[in-house]
Amino acid sequence: VAKQSGKNAYHLFDMAHDEAIKTQHESQERMRSALIQNELVLYYQPKVNMRTGQVTGAEALIRWAHPQHGLLAPAAFLPTIEDLPVSIEVGEWVIASALAQMSAWQAMGLHLPVSVNISAYQLQQSRFAIRLNELLATYADVHPSWIQLEVLETSALEDMGKVGQVMRDCHAMGVHFALDDFGTGYSSLTYLKRLPASTLKIDQSFVRDMLDDPGDLAIVNGVVGLARSFSREVIAEGVETCLHGEKLLSIGCELAQGYGIARPMPAHQIPEWVANWHQEARWSA
Ligand code: C2E
Ligand code: MG
Ligand code: MG
Ligand code: MG
């Protein structure tokens, strides 16, 4: 009997495994078809310097204009293709599309640095730097230093040897890096010293709660101090209110991104938004 049930259990596991493979395969095919049908779009969220009022750049954020389900946020579809080969194709589409957009903006006189999110899986591919170099050559009018790659703090530290090398190769081409959602991982200061990341992005969870939670305020303060000690830039994400902006300024964090400044928007709205953004500072320190 024992032998019998063992066999059944094995059979069940086998079926669950097949089922998982099938689901993965379906996710891949759906995403490939979305790429072919041109259903993926990049939204852009402005970044500003709260002290000077200057618009310092924009972050490209992927959306899926799904024919049945409407505009899908990344959380609704990126996890289903995580670590699958198709995620590399999507990642390359994101970079190519951001470069094409920057080139188009430049042609109309708008010089805007753009940051693009990169997954750990992308960064673990040795071909990543080569492909990036090819894409930069295709859009030769865009200077590499205007592109910033946002890497999750956690993924940058996952495979330090490999990822560090890929980052250094890209950095040598002039591309900048930011460590995204900084503070949510277990960043060792040694890693920070070794990684060629010019910017630390304070995670929005800390920014959001820093006015009520002394622990979160301490983290925000800590990251700002860390950035200063390592001569890195620091930007706060999730800046939703003036109070948040003022607090950040008083701590010494001038760069910000968040709904309180602008929500992510389609690319065509960016030039008008930039033109209408008041040059004078909105927040007084
Ligand atoms: P992230 O890179 O940390 O991007 C910031 C997220 O916070 C965006 O969500 C943005 O819309 C949202 N956000 C901005 N300001 C505020 C605010 O004031 N309050 C609140 N509550 N949220 C704010 P989104 O667009 O849904 O993206 C979620 C995550 O998906 C991103 O987090 C990033 O990790 C990932 N992602 C987005 N686009 C791409 C992409 O092209 N490739 C990869 N690999 N990941 C991407
Ligand atoms: Mg990001
Ligand atoms: Mg983030
Ligand atoms: Mg995030």
From TrEMBL:
Domain of life: Bacteria
Sorted UniProt keywords: Coiled coil, Membrane, Transmembrane, Transmembrane helix
Domain EAL: 23-269
Name by which UniProt lists this protein: Diguanylate cyclase/phosphodiesterase with PAS/PAC sensor(S)
Organism: Rhodoferax lithotrophicus
Stretch of the intact protein here: 671 to 955 of 955
